[in-house]
Every structure is written in C-alpha cells, then in structure tokens.
Amino acid sequence: MDFWFKVDWYKLFIPGSSFAELFIRGSLVYFMLFAILRFLPNRQIGAVGIADLLVVILFANAAENAMSSDYTSITDGALLVSTIIFWSYSLNWLGFKFPRFQRWLNPPPKPLVTQGRMLPENMDEELLTKDELMRMLRQHGVQKLDDVKAAFMEADGSISVIPQDTKIPKAVEKQTL
C-alpha cells in the first residue's frame, strides 16, 4: 500500500543531467529537426510554418518525457522546454532584425506559373502535379492557365495566385474617372 503514496521528492526535482548537457542536447535536436523541416518540399508541410511545427513537436516530446519520468526530474523537462523556447524566439528575432537571415529561415515564394505558362522544374521540386495545380487555381477562381499572370508556392505550403489584368471597357473607365 505504501507504493501508491510514496513520492521520491529528490528524484522529482533534482536534475539527472547537467544544465549544460540538457541545453546542448535540446539545441542539437532543435537544429537537426529545423534543417530537416526547412528543406522538405513546402507542400508537405501544409499551412503551419516550419518553426511553429518544430516547436509543437519538441514541446510535446520534452513535456511527455518529463511527465513519464524518462527524465529523472521535472527540472530536466522544464529546461528542455526552455531551450526550445529560447531557440524559437532567438531565430524569430534574428529573422526580424536581419532580412538575410529571414531568407534562410523561410524559403522565398517559388514561381509555379508565369504569364499563363507552368514552370515544370519548380513544380517538380515541390512535387506538385498539373492536376493539383489546376485544383488549387480553381480554388482561387481561375479556370485556365491563360488567366494566371503568376502563381507562387509560399513558404507555408499555400499557393498564391495573381490573375491576368482584366480589361475595363472604355465606357466604364470614363465613368469611374
């Protein structure tokens, strides 16, 4: 019966590893996962940003380990979660302050269509078929490629579409001026 109510308070709060080791482990895992997620094709990620997805994954893992006693203390888990927050904030801050760094964190938009022509090499890089592109264009109200001035794969995996300029009849143009 004593088993049900016995708590090892020392093991619960005293870290099982040094703070430096936990920080280095958390940092290495963060940057390894960041690099993997950064270079996946954008369409595989969806509408969640790379850094957001990474933080959620690492939080879940660090918190789970701290709760299930894979670490020997809650302090270990708290330090790992703090390391994740530190790197997430630091990278966002660096991207905000230094635009060149931001380009490394988030890929620039990749052109998929220019002046009504598909760019097959870019579509291949994003693992995007013509049928998938056309479905996404229809979701933007575009039925034909000729109606697209430009379409881009954004960093979050969404597609932005710029339609061709529509001609305004001269009679209507004169009335609005």
From TrEMBL:
<feature type="transmembrane region" description="Helical">
    <location>
        <begin position="45"/>
        <end position="63"/>
    </location>
</feature>
<keyword id="KW-1133">Transmembrane helix</keyword>
<feature type="domain" description="YetF C-terminal">
    <location>
        <begin position="97"/>
        <end position="166"/>
    </location>
</feature>
<dbReference type="Pfam" id="PF04239">
    <property type="entry name" value="DUF421"/>
</dbReference>
<feature type="transmembrane region" description="Helical">
    <location>
        <begin position="78"/>
        <end position="96"/>
    </location>
</feature>
<keyword id="KW-0472">Membrane</keyword>
<protein>
    <recommendedName>
        <fullName>YetF C-terminal domain-containing protein</fullName>
    </recommendedName>
</protein>
<dbReference type="GO" id="GO:0005886">
    <property type="term" value="C:plasma membrane"/>
</dbReference>
<dbReference type="InterPro" id="IPR023090">
    <property type="entry name" value="UPF0702_alpha/beta_dom_sf"/>
</dbReference>
<keyword id="KW-0812">Transmembrane</keyword>
<dbReference type="InterPro" id="IPR007353">
    <property type="entry name" value="DUF421"/>
</dbReference>
<comment type="similarity">
    <text>Belongs to the UPF0702 family.</text>
</comment>
<feature type="transmembrane region" description="Helical">
    <location>
        <begin position="12"/>
        <end position="33"/>
    </location>
</feature>
<keyword id="KW-1003">Cell membrane</keyword>
